[in-house]
Amino acid sequence: MEQVGYDTYCNLLDEVIKQMQGIEIEDTKDVQIDINISSYIPDEYISESSQKIEIYQNIALCKTQEDIENVIDEIIDRYGDLPSELENLIEVSRIKRMCEQKHIIKLSQRMENVVFTFDNKKFDLKVVEKLVDKYKNKIKFSTGNPYITLNVRSNSQKEIVKQIKEFIESV
Question: How far apart (Å, rounded) are the C-alpha atoms in residues 14 and 26?
Fold first, then answer.
């Protein structure tokens, strides 16, 4: 786990279990997310390292909205109301799942812009026309390795997350 990273380890473990169960595995690219929000489990909320690792793993293994809701319920039952940093971590997990569904392979924030990089093999140019109609001059598009830059002027982490999710839903 130390050599490949936590997310990769969880994904590999999940794939091995599915293979052993005879479930066909769809080849998906791991979504890279780099946005300016505090997303972690604070020591004041869960101090035990092994319990933190378990929660991180449970969040990383979520594949559906229902999975995420189940993990949230479990965390609240065990530890109480979620701190904002953990809420942000769960929102990042939601965003990651949304990106996978829309073939977005990388999402990165640079100042007041968020860049959505798409899988070149699965990108549909019709999406750009739809987004230009909706967002007008708030977006910029580049071909090659297709990416769209969205301007998200806000100082609020929650507002930035909201704008990112709304944009992904529009794709």
Answer: 12
pLDDT of amino acid 5: 63
Query: pLDDT tens for residues 30-82?
Result: 899 999 999 999 999 999 998 999 999 899 888 888 999 999 999 999 999 99
Query: pTM here?
Result: 0.80
Q: Which amino acid is at 151?
A: N
Which pairs count as long-range contacts for 59-68, CB under 8 Å and 24+ apart, including other chains? 59/89, 59/90, 59/93, 60/6, 60/7, 60/10, 60/11, 60/93, 61/10, 61/14, 62/93, 62/97, 63/97, 64/97, 65/94, 65/97, 68/93, 68/94, 68/97
Domain 31-170 carries which CATH code? Answer: 3.90.1150.50
Contact 104, 164 (CB under 8 A): no
In this structure, are residues 164 and 96 in contact, taking their beta carbons and an 8 Å threshold? no
CA distance 157 to 121: 32
